[in-house]
């Protein structure tokens, strides 16, 4: 995972909330950009509520099988310094390659979450109505549903296989041999 520099933010001139301050950094992420895994995102995708996000974008190596893109920005977004009037260099991330939330499950089953926005977890964003500039108002954001489901997965409250009291034996004999020969 690579975060954009500290002065950068995800900017989207077509998918922003009307309560934005004019820089178009309070973006509205569509539930269609959410990972299709109920184990990780819970009912957040089925609830079909938009997400509020204000923060920096990330990029990842698409060849890494341990990383999952949980929430991506829209195809019209990019990560850059919103205080600059013109882009002096190519943006750090562009379009759907702009990750808003990503998770990693390491080979030892440790789980790590990466979110480019502290506001995503705030009470303000949990309880806020979402008014995208396209006019489809929602009384509530999907932030809280996603945050709860994501933390449940990260802290192994869901999506864990457990085994107890395992017995093994040869098909021909119900007793457990001390050694097996292959």
From TrEMBL:
Domain (OST48 N-terminal) ranges: 1-153
Topology class, membrane: Single-pass type I membrane protein
GO annotation, biological process: protein N-linked glycosylation via asparagine
Pathway: Protein modification; protein glycosylation
Classification via InterPro entries: DDOST_48_kDa_subunit (IPR005013), OST48_N (IPR055457)
GO cellular component: oligosaccharyltransferase complex
Signal peptide limits: none
Locations listed in the record: Endoplasmic reticulum membrane
Keywords from the UniProt entry: Endoplasmic reticulum
Keyword Metal-binding appears in the UniProt entry: no
Keyword tRNA processing on entry: no
Family: Belongs to the DDOST 48 kDa subunit family.
The protein's role, per its UniProt record: Subunit of the oligosaccharyl transferase (OST) complex that catalyzes the initial transfer of a defined glycan (Glc(3)Man(9)GlcNAc(2) in eukaryotes) from the lipid carrier dolichol-pyrophosphate to an asparagine residue within an Asn-X-Ser/Thr consensus motif in nascent polypeptide chains, the first step in protein N-glycosylation. N-glycosylation occurs cotranslationally and the complex associates with the Sec61 complex at the channel-forming translocon complex that mediates protein translocation across the endoplasmic reticulum (ER).
Subunit and interaction comment: Component of the oligosaccharyltransferase (OST) complex.
PANTHER family per record: DOLICHYL-DIPHOSPHOOLIGOSACCHARIDE--PROTEIN GLYCOSYLTRANSFERASE 48 KDA SUBUNIT (PTHR10830)
Name of this chain's protein: Dolichyl-diphosphooligosaccharide--protein glycosyltransferase 48 kDa subunit
Organism of derivation: Rotaria magnacalcarata
């Amino acid at each position: 995972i690579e975060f954009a520099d500290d002065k950068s933010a995800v900017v989207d001139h077509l998918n922003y909330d009307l309560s934005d301050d004019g820089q178009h950094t309070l973006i509205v992420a569509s539930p269609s950009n959410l990972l299709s895994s109920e184990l990780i995102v819970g009912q957040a995708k089925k609830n079909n509520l938009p997400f509020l996000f204000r923060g920096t974008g990330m990029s990842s190596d698409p060849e890494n099988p341990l990383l999952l893109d949980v929430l991506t920005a829209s195809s019209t977004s990019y990560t850059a310094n919103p205080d600059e009037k013109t882009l002096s260099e190519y943006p750090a991330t562009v379009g759907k390659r702009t990750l808003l939330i990503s998770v990693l499950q390491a080979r030892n089953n440790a789980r790590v979450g990466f979110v480019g926005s502290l506001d995503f977890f705030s009470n303000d964003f949990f309880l806020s109505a979402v008014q995208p500039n396209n006019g489809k108002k929602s009384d509530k954001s999907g932030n809280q549903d996603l945050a709860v489901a994501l933390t449940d997965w990260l802290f192994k409250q869901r999506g864990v296989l457990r085994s107890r009291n395992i017995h093994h034996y040869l098909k021909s004999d119900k007793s457990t041999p001390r050694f097996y020969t292959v």
